[in-house]
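Sequence in, structure out.
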Amino acid sequence: MKICFAASSGGHLEQIMMLYPMMTKYTSFILTEKTNYQPSLKDVNVYRVVQINRREFLFPFKAIILFFQTLRVFLKEKPDVIISTGALATLPICLLAKIKRKKLIFIESFAKISSPTITGKIVYKFADLFLVQWDEIKKHYPGAVNGGGIY
């Protein structure tokens, strides 16, 4: 079984890195945005895609680039499971997982206690397992499972 751990930069990446012991237990790789901060891991491949912001002028063009970069990684690695902590940069791999009938596990952000994320609201509709880290957020995701804090 091959697992893709997908997260945008910053806190989302920090959260997914809390699953590092799982990354080393299974054949896996990380998909994240290309930024100044990059995890340097010798035993897990890291793929970097374009950083994207829905409020910037070039968003539509960067979204297309992001999709094709993600598709290339997906076709090369052929993951069986995608585990994502969001955000926007991970949406293409989540959609590809669903299209290709792969398992998708989404972990809503630890920082979101009482309001949902935009990516969470989208992915909740088709994730195989949707995990939250706080009971309070379950009012927005009634079918979610509280997996407890990732930290």
